[in-house]
Amino acid sequence: MDKTYNKHEKLKSKKLIDQLFTEGKSVSVYPFRMVYLETIFEDHVPFKTGVSVSKKYFKKAVDRNRIKRLMREAYRLNKTTYFNNITTPYAFMILYIGNTKPTYNHVEQSMNKLFKKFTNVTPKQTIDEKTT
RNA sequence: CAAGUAAAUCGCCUUAUCGAACCAAACUUGUUUUGGUUAGGAAAGUCCGAACACCGGAGUGCAAACAUAGUGGCUAACAGCCACCAGCCGUGAGGUUAGGAAAAGUGCAACAGAAAGUAUGUACAGGUUAUGCUGUAGUGAAACCAGGUAAACUCUAUGUGGUGCAAUGUCAUGUAUACCAACGUUUGAGCGCGGCACGUGCGAUUGUUGGAGGGUAGGCAGCUAGAAUGUAUUGGUAACAAUGCAUCCAGAUAAAUGAUAAGGGCUUUUUAAUUUUUAAUUAGAAAGUACAGAAUUCGGCUUAUAGAUUUGUUUAAAUA
């Protein structure tokens, strides 16, 4: 997997996003919250990821754009270290739940923590699902 | 010089690494390669005016509601812009104005004043038997004759259908089936023919196929070559118009136009040194580098904006 984040890796389907929020599980490391769900994609992409910032805390479009860009960048550069070993396809939605404008370093560190937590959590759950 | 004043322009740059979207070409037809393009002056507020689309009426008049309001011009249109007149502000350059009508009617009016109008007080004088009456004084912008106010109602003139690209059109996976047709199934309720049975016709139910309808997820069109931009000439005081030449300049949709690092500008503060005091130059340090992100498209208006630049123009008094 390369350090890319193109059209096919973006979570776009409205249907899937609704499903994600109703059925998905979540891990959170401040200031992020990641909702995830196991699915199968028609175009055989391993992961699809979306990014979201609340309009409630950031009223200006410029600020929202900036934060989303930082998040996408952090995802793009760090996903290879965590997700290359995972074979099951997942849909992700990463939410920014803080209320201050972050710096890039801050975003990257938090994102790393978030992914670590995710990789620790997921295998257990899959085992649980199989047993029960 | 300094302080204004009016108008216009710009609004960080370079390099490296890793990326995103769209378009074109190529072939090895791909999550390929190569090339090109990729946010603003306000993209913002959504306040006016249009284009375009659909709905309604499809004609005319009146009324209501809303908007506009000096005169003339510009414009596709406008509540916009330009010129001129008038009032007000400023020494001035200049700024600013909801600048139609008070002899149609209704209302309102601070302070002062007895009273701002279903009034007639006080003092003095005149007059009278006396009162009513007449004059003067005092308040105020205005005292019975009217005036002010229409960013009060109102009147006059002019204009105005509604909803908005989530408009609208089109393709249509899947799902469900009140619809229609054909064929078929059955422990086939019930009904008709018949005295009853068999039989036969209709048929609730159910299956398959086809059609029609509906229009969800999603795709495509609308979707960017235009009242376009730049430039020159001509006409016009100007807004603006005409003509010639050149150019193609974002099209995303959980929403691209980026991230990081290094260096350099610019501004402010501060330290040191030098020079002719104010100040300037050089070197170092610290901080800052705005407002803000297209979403159908144009013309305006309004609001936000670190800092920089250019041009025209004004300066009374005081001080040097």
Automatic annotation (TrEMBL):
Catalytic activity: Endonucleolytic cleavage of RNA, removing 5'-extranucleotides from tRNA precursor
GO biological processes: tRNA 5'-leader removal
Keyword field: Endonuclease, Hydrolase, Nuclease, RNA-binding, tRNA processing
EC number: 3.1.26.5
Domain of life: Bacteria
Gene Ontology CC terms: ribonuclease P complex
Pfam families registered for this protein in UniProt: Ribonuclease_P
Gene3D superfamilies recorded: 3.30.230.10
Coiled-coil residues: none
Example of a GO MF term: ribonuclease P activity
Family membership noted in the UniProt record: Belongs to the RnpA family.
Function: RNaseP catalyzes the removal of the 5'-leader sequence from pre-tRNA to produce the mature 5'-terminus. It can also cleave other RNA substrates such as 4.5S RNA. The protein component plays an auxiliary but essential role in vivo by binding to the 5'-leader sequence and broadening the substrate specificity of the ribozyme.
UniProt name for this protein: Ribonuclease P protein component
Originating organism: Bizionia myxarmorum
